[in-house]
Design goal:
Blueprint: H1 23-51, H2 61-68, H3 71-99, H4 103-130, H5 144-147
Helix pairs in contact: 1-3, 3-4
Length: about 150
Amino acid sequence: MMSTTIAAPRTPHSAPRRKGPNLEKWGWMYMRVSGVLLVVLIFGHLFVNLLTGDGIHQIDFAFVAGKLASPFWQWWDFLMLTLAMIHGANGMRTIVNDYVTHGGTRRTLVWAIWIVSVFLIVLGTLVVFTFDPCLGVTPDSVLWDRCQ
């Protein structure tokens, strides 16, 4: 008869440790830190857009153009966009790692998630920092007088 002993719960695992940075740990830490920052950024965004001034009735093209003319709001929106996209992509990566069993499919999906995320961050950054409300304004537009 063979007896089996169970190791004490605090006994170190005998598998060799990988060298290099623990990316899963850093991803886990990023999710916590970015989550807290995103709560502050999003509630600040909602407060300014919905609770100050005329509330929801103030939001129109001119309101957005005015906000995006300010470097403060440009950086606020850029930080919110970047943190949210990386936070979401990291969450999707975790889901793919948990549920996709085939290694090649998993790698393809994770690469696709990061490529799409980088593309959207670049596109959003271009919009935030290069927004010009006068681009393409014609004489029959309501913005014609303001853009002259």
